[in-house]
Amino acid sequence: MALGRGLGELLGEVETAYSNSNSNDSKSNNSIIELDVNLIKPNPNQPRKIFDEDKLKELSDSIVEHGLLQPVTVREDNKGGYILVAGERRLRAHKLANLDTIKAAIIDIEEFKLRELALIENIQRDDLNIIELAYSYAQLINEHSITHDELAKRVFKSRTSITNTLRLLQLSSYVQQMLANNKISAGHGKIMLGLEDELQKKVADSIYGQKLSVREAETLVRELKNSKNKPEEKISKKEKKSYDFKPLQTAIENLKKSNLKVKAEKNYFKIEIRSQEDIEKISNYFGNTF
């Protein structure tokens, strides 16, 4: 098989090989054969690290009852064995069912393509958690020089979906772990982007502990941001003191005798002015006094 062909064509050939397996029993590139499961080595570049045991058991039971509908894909190594390119769940399910052999499509592909096929196969055909999916996208883009648009076409996702998923890798490792364990959703993660790690942890713990919806979490983040950006209020405002007005008692009485309204309490001394005449009275009094 020419190495220059596109990935889509390559996967198409694997499917064609499977459909023609009944009439092609010879061992050649892309043929379907029964392989000893112990001869197949896991792909070291497999992005998926967590496998749901219950789902594996369901798949295992289905394979025992109905047989394997989709063969795994392998490539030969230089030691007489095979390296798994795609289909780790199927291989694990076979081993769980104590089946000795598994249907496999053998492809001839350069080492560099091994990771690309494994990543795309998992993205398209299995439920990676959102963080594993994000790392798979990042690996394809960074290691295989694939643009967001190209990746979108290959995995049948929207460009926006891929970009939003990749942004989750900007979150702290603490929040990423909560996302990987499905304790919070990708929607929750999205609203924490841009927050400091400590604040992310606080929000994530609140979401999980209080079972907050995305909208409720948005409100929480908005309140925390406003609180952080709000100038700190002076905690210790000057307390109002009460003063002793006895030294001014004579002045107060004299002003009152002039029909002026005077008020002295706590920390202020107030003379109410109701007319120009009041101003002249005050002026005369203080002028004569001082």
UniProtKB/TrEMBL annotation:
Q: Which residues cross the membrane?
A: none
Q: Which GO terms describe its molecular function?
A: DNA binding
Query: Looking at the keywords, is GTP-binding present?
Result: no
ParB-like N-terminal domain: from which residue to which, for each copy? Answer: 33-123
> What single Pfam family name could you report for this chain, choosing any that match?
HTH_ParB
- Give the UniProt keywords, A-Z: Chromosome partition, DNA-binding
From which residue to which does any coiled coil extend?
Answer: none
A GO biological process this protein is involved in?
positive regulation of sporulation resulting in formation of a cellular spore
Q: Which GO terms describe its cellular component?
A: chromosome
Specify the domain of life of the species encoding this protein. Bacteria
Q: Which family does it belong to?
A: Belongs to the ParB family.
Can you name this protein?
Chromosome partitioning protein ParB
